[in-house]
Amino acid sequence: MEKELSLKKIALLGNPNVGKSSLFNSLTGLNQQVGNFPGVTVEKKTGLCRFLNQEQTEIIDLPGLYSLFVKSADEAVVLETLIDPNTQINLLLVVLDACNLERSLMLYTQALDLGYDAIPLLTMNDLAKKRGIKVDLQELSKNLKQAIFEINPRKHKGIKELKAFLADYNPVKKEADSDFKNRLMLGQFDLMKSLSSESKKISREELEKSGKDSTDVQLEDTLQRMNTVHELLGTAINFEKVSKKNSTASIDKVITHPIFGYLIYLGVLMLIFQFIFSVAEYPMNWIDSSFASINAWLKSVLPQSAITDLLTEGIIAGIGGIIIFIPQIAILFAFIAVLEESGYMSRVVYLMDKPMRMFGLNGKSVVPLISGAACAVPAIMSARGIDSYKERLITIFVTPFISCSARLPVYIIIIALVIPEGTFLGFSYKGLSLMGLYLLGIFAALLTATAMSFILKTKDKSLFLIDLPSYRMPRWKNIGITVYQKSGSFVLEAGKIILAISVILWALASYGPTTAMKLAEQKTEEMMLENPALNKEEVLSAQKLEASFIGHFGHFIEPAIRPLGYDWKVGIALITSFAAREVFVGTLGTIYSVGEQDFDQKLVDKMRNETFSNGNKVFNLASGFSLLVFYVFAMQCMSTVAIVYRETGGWKWPIIQLIYMSGLAWAAAFVTYNLLS
Amino acid sequence: MQQITKETVVLVKATTDCNYRIIEIRNRLLALKLMEMGCLEGMIIQKISAAPFNGPLIIRVYPNENLLAIRYEDSADILISEALSKSSDN
User: Fold this and answer.
1) If you count residue pairs, one on A and one on B, with CB atoms under 8 Å apart, how many are there?
2) Phi, psi torsion values for A623, nearest 5 degrees
3) How far is A470 from A472, CA to CA, in rounded Å?
4) Does B86 lie at the interface with A, CB-CB under 8 angstroms?
5) In chain A, which residues have pLDDT < 50?
């Protein structure tokens, strides 16, 4: 039974690293959206393309895979999309790699057996020629009984012809081969989320009856298919001996060298780190000061009112808090895109597999972990490149343990306060303490990762087997699109949560019970009468903060943080620093009415003299270290919570992470405080 | 199942300057995944490099000259012929 249909939706199918994304970018340009496949963290890219005068057609870029006999939950989304009875996809563009025609055609025949109309597109023919692989397109097209297009999306070759061909193409949908569909079910029913438990049970029973296991079913089908592919290829492919030395082989001699390979990787990581840590600072400072001047300007032109405050202190400050991440996200993803596009990332996985596997992590986890030292938000986003769901989740979970740049101001002020001057083996105590804090974070990350790798169960059958593509020059357009998309999806998806929380925090810090707020004003007047030398504005904001809801909340949580050595003032700073850790320092500045001049020194002086009601000092070695340890472990960052929500597609993991990290922070701070006091 | 004899060795023992023929892949899941990636029993391969401390190995699969990385532990399941020829690449 054949049905002729109008072109509704096209999906791109192909092996990994065959230039599928380049083709997608060539067809859709910036006209694309990135989301998740339902229920999983696999990126779903869709875009629109107009073929001549036709209406716009939707194009889906399916994740690359070798076979529809999928090995992981991530790959399963491809199969589930294709076998969905309600799918509107009615044409597949199957990208064939000329360097690997057998395996490309294997996937192509699977697509045909699902009943899809599939047009084969041959890519990488330039590379194949260099390797001495000669593909006779006419012969192959004759064998396949199907026109083949040779394209080179990197150079935009063949795209115009393809578009013209598709403009008046009417795809034909056939019935799927029922034997193949049955084998697909038997081979992987346990990985498929869309199947009802009833149909899983039927498949399981059928499989048991046949006396085989799912691997047998898959092996039989694949072997048979490979034989078919060989017949189809026939004389359409020829191999010639080429005398020219393979440039990839020469580069690999250095890049994958047991010593130089690691040194080069270390250099690459340091370069990335340097860029997201230092170079990003310039645009970040610029964004920061721009938002400050917008706010100052608005305050000067708008009447003083609650709405003006909401706009300036709540909304615009909140948006500033989102935009500030863009330089780091853009830089990190530009680097990652270059590493992926050039073929280097696969070598990193090869080099780092052994060391990272000891902790249940992936070779690709190194990039998120190192980037986490600048900021957990782009770092967690970069975990998306990790193929295995379990390893990706573990990486996302432990990355916030790495001390990020926002913790540094907190560390510095407290170290200045409680760590004495002096040296040990030529290193200052202060420097050693700072290093200790970073190491503590790394230690917690690795320990947690190891524990999680034992706890988390996975149905994935994936073996470590990776394809090392030939080195290629990155295509700058692809990199630009990646950077644009990553920044955009962060602003739109994590940004709204960050904005909401920052407005709530602002409201809680600006408002309080009416009587308490009035009392704060009265108290300020009294204090001013007693000591006219005080800065009235500073005193008033300190009094108001104490009277606000957050101030009340600080008092409320005091019993919980008293065992850690903190008073309610520190409690207030802990709560406000959920907006961003460095806010801790600013909040203490407000509470202790420290003016802008010589801020750090004055704050340290004030903190040094701060006492509990019984006259004991609030900040001593024990409470200082307790606070430091607390900040190493605690997930005190709403942006991190928001990005974990986006990356894992739900609230489950960010909540588990928040509880785990806060619990660990509390316990570690408690132990530290009691050991030192 | 093929016995490891004088004529056959496991992949981990291969030297980098020679080509070998894959005789048997003794782990079905590995055989499946390798087949899907275009590497079947009977094909000629060459070991290119190995990451330190029993890290993964890189093999080149002929005639396509594809490079694959495979874990050391898994490579013990790949049975290869004795060295066929000196590789031209080295």
Assistant:
1) 109
2) -70, -30
3) 6
4) no
5) 1
Q: Are A617 and A611 in contact (CB under 8 A)?
A: yes
Interchain pair A249, B40: CB under 8 A: no
pLDDT band per the 50, 70, 90 thresholds, residue B18: confident
Q: pLDDT tier at B90 (50, 70, 90 boundaries)? A: very low
Look up the domain containing B78 and give its range.
8-83
- Given the DSSP bridges, would you call strands B85-86 and B18-25 parallel, antiparallel or unpaired? antiparallel
- Determine contact: B42 vs chain A, CB below 8 A: no
Q: Which residues constitute the domain of residue A157?
A: 2-239
DSSP tally for chain B: helices H, then strands E: 2, 7
Q: Is residue A87 part of a domain?
A: yes
Closest CA to A554 of A501, A512, A596: A512
Q: Domain total for chain A? A: 1
Say what the pLDDT of residue A613 is: 79
C-alpha to C-alpha distances, A132 to A124, A129, A250, A345, B63, nearest whole angstrom: 13, 5, 17, 26, 9
How far is the C-alpha of A21 from the C-alpha of A28, rounded, in Å?
A: 10
Phi and psi torsions of B14, nearest 5°: -65, 150
Which chain B residues contact residue A248 at CB under 8 A?
67
Tokens describing residue A420: 């004495």
Closest residue in A to B29 (Cα–Cα): A215
Instruction: Specify the CATH number for the domain of residue A31.
Output: 3.40.50.300
Question: Is the residue at A118 inside a domain?
Answer: yes
Interface test with A, best of B26, B35, B68 (most A CBs within 10 A): B35
CB B68 within 8 A of CB B38: no
List the single residue in A with minimal CA-CA distance to B73.
A464
- Shortest Cα distance, chain A CAs vs residue B71, angstroms: 6
